[in-house]
Hints:
Elements lengths: L4 E6 L13 H19 L3 H6 L2 E12 L8 E11 L4 E9 L4 E13 L4 E3 L3 H4 L30 E4 L13 H10 L3 H6 L2 E8 L8 E10 L2 E8 L5 E9 L1
Antiparallel strand pairs: 1-3, 2-5, 2-8, 3-4, 4-5, 5-6, 7-9, 8-11, 9-10, 10-11
Helix pairs in contact: 1-4
Amino acid sequence: MAFIQTDTYTLHSYECDATGRLSVPALMNLMQESANRNADDYGIGSGTLQAQGLGWMLMRFGLTMHQCPTNGQIISVVTYPTFVEKFFVYRDFRVLADDGTLLAEASSTWLVFDTAKRGIIPVPGFIRSLSPPEVVDVSPKLPLKPAYQTVDFSATPADQVTVGWFDIDANQHVNNVVYIRWLLEQLPDTILQTQKLAELDVVYRTETHWREQIDVQNLPTEPGTFVHRLAHAETGKEVLLAQTVWR
């Protein structure tokens, strides 16, 4: 069977920023809550995978914001899988106002990893057998190697964060939304105070763990556009690359 998940959320003040707009990390958390429920309907939720020593890992995420929801607003998050391949599972999201206005949309690429070996494995057969719903406006697959990955950060200063206990999730690594909070917090004050996020594109490279130290860098590439890099402070190993566009 094919399942489309639709959840209705009333936005709370603690999910919003100082301007009263829903924060991007809070929006991503709502999206992933709905994704988890949809995965449960398919019998491939986090609990099912954990019982088999497996876990979901987000590899790519692309978000486009059309209108930013605000405190007290009622929104609907719609999500469903779109494609299943040997190593990748793709998922789309739509965020709607109560009158049906499209507020935001996102596409994502997921991997399955072995929680004991901490390594990526081919998508198991019980997942590959799922049937995505027949949806007309399926998003194109995000490129594995976006153009911004060639940006040179060697001369860019870094802020450093230490992974806290509340940054990690049940897979014993930093939750993917936490990285987005870190990279957004490093942006110039004027961007955060006067502009709105229009686009977010993320490539997740590797996991990080409790008490590790992470370097956070950003580099403006053109007006209103930044490329972001997170890396292990000790090894220099890249954790994440991202691009944000602001209006």
